[in-house]
Amino acid sequence: MAVRGEVVAVARAGETHRLSGSWSGLEKANGFLAHLDARAFSPATVRAYAYDLVNFARFLIERKLGSSGIRVGPGMGLTRTFARQGLGDQSRRGTG
To answer: Is 39 helix (H, G, I), strand (E, B) or coil?
Structure first.
């Protein structure tokens, strides 16, 4: 469901998944997905995050909440924390 003309969906190019549309948080969300790709997370994991972000975006849009308060940093910090703790290795390409 789009509200105020904002649309968001998952676009796939090969094994890369990114959000597409006119949602105001698109650049931040795609930055996070690019970060996961750069960290060699598996395509399936990046895809799962992409769909989670679409649902989150639609939640914000439906409730007329802006994306200006969303910061990518904490999410990237979470993936680094998981890596330090040895968690999430199965989500990386070529492991598990």
So the answer is: coil
Return the bridge partners of 19, or none.
10
Question: What does each C-alpha distance from 41 to 16, 38, 48, 83 come to in angstroms?
Answer: 11, 8, 11, 11
Give how many domains the chain has, as a whole number: 1
Residue 45 lies in a domain: yes
Half-sphere exposure of 67 (CA within 13 A, CB side): 20
Q: CA–CA separation, 59 vs 1, rounded Å?
A: 9
Q: Which domain holds residue 61?
A: 8-91
d(CA 1, CA 61): 8
Is the entire prediction scored with pTM above 0.85?
A: no
Q: Beta strands of 14-95 (E only): which ranges?
A: 16-21
Residues 31-64 pLDDT 10s: 989 989 988 899 899 999 999 998 888 888 888 8
- Please indicate, yes or no, if residue 96 is contained in any of the structural domains: no
